[in-house]
Design a protein that fits this description.
By secondary structure, this protein is an alpha+beta fold. It is built from five helices and 16 strands. The protein has an eight-stranded mixed beta sheet. The longest helix has 13 residues.
């Protein structure tokens, strides 16, 4: 029983319309599900992914009227997005220049060519050259040429003040593997843990930063990261967390996947999410994201929910 990689990452936006423009028109991702936060139906939950809404390509946002995040530790501090080649990164650098997106230019981190940039609300993002590992599913309606489109998530970087207990949870409970350690330019040590087949789509990078204050969450910050599992293993993971006496949400049916939430020892919210049944559970692949989708238990409240949402 192993986790297979990054399933999705959920961040916070205070500007759903601007968020939609940036992620679909500047980054060229596909809006594959427009729904609401099932725990707060006054807020959108927007899912951007590849052309087939593949698990592991979902970057999602809660639409909350929050002030900007104050950066710090105890947080998910950088979101990796994979592209397939060095020539794609060169193309993206020129694209960002044309779109007035400030970026780092090509740099090397952890042995991989990378471009760092922020979204309009300050979420820290990186484009990573994954050298074409694994499948790609371009979106035919994307404004980005197919060969340069974002292929999926990963790696994800978190910041913690104390590594030891987080490492124990990753290795002993979640059965990740310790792969290596590298250093940021400021000499911060970053330890890489991998799942499944490994590689950037299946890596969690943990920066140990004991001398900075905790983050205060808000727009431009990340709410949680989810790791991939299957319906077959889902109950076993639920039992395993109980066995290790980790407080969890208990099983949660999100309709598009099953979830289990818990916090690692430094307080960062983790989720285990199943690949199945996926986003075509209630609308066809060809028209994903074009209309407001609601899980069956919210359908009877559609009129009320739609009236409370701003048009995107």
């Amino acid at each position: 029983m192993q986790l297979h990689g990054i399933h999705h990452l959920t961040a916070v936006t205070a500007n759903a319309k601007g968020n939609h423009h940036f992620y679909t028109q500047v980054l060229g991702m596909r809006l594959v599900k427009k729904t609401v936060n099932q725990d707060d139906v006054s807020a959108y939950h927007l899912f951007y992914a590849d052309g087939l809404a593949t698990p592991g390509s979902d970057l999602t946002f809660f639409d909350w009227p929050a002030p900007r995040e104050t950066r710090g530790t105890n947080s998910i501090c950088r979101t990796g997005l994979r592209v397939g080649s060095e020539s794609s990164l060169t193309w993206w650098a020129a694209h960002f220049d044309a779109a007035n997106v400030t970026h780092s230019g090509l740099l090397t981190r952890d042995g991989r060519l990378t471009i760092d940039f922020d979204d309009p609300e300050g979420q820290r993002l990186s484009l990573i050259n994954d050298e074409g590992q694994g499948e790609a599913h371009p979106w035919e309606k994307s404004p980005i040429p197919a060969e340069h489109q974002i292929r999926g998530l990963g790696p994800i970087t978190i910041s913690v003040p104390r590594l030891a207990k987080t490492e124990a949870l990753l290795l002993e409970l979640l059965q990740m593997r310790k792969a290596r350690t590298y250093f940021h330019s400021d000499q911060t040590p970053v330890t890489v843990y991998e799942m499944g087949a490994g590689g950037p789509a299946a890596e969690l990078h943990v920066a140990e930063e004991p001398n900075i204050a905790p983050a205060r969450h808000g727009a431009g910050g990340v709410h949680h990261v989810a790791f991939r599992t299957t319906l077959t293993d889902y109950k076993a993971w639920t039992d395993r967390l109980t066995e290790f006496r980790v407080a969890t949400s208990g099983p949660v049916d999100r309709f598009y996947f099953r979830s289990l939430y818990f916090r690692e020892p430094n307080g960062i919210l983790f989720e285990l999410a199943t690949d199945e049944p996926g986003f075509t559970a209630d609308e066809p692949l060809e028209s994903l994201g074009e209309h407001l989708s609601l899980p069956p238990f919210l359908e009877s409240r559609r009129s009320q929910i739609e009236a409370g949402l701003k048009p995107i």
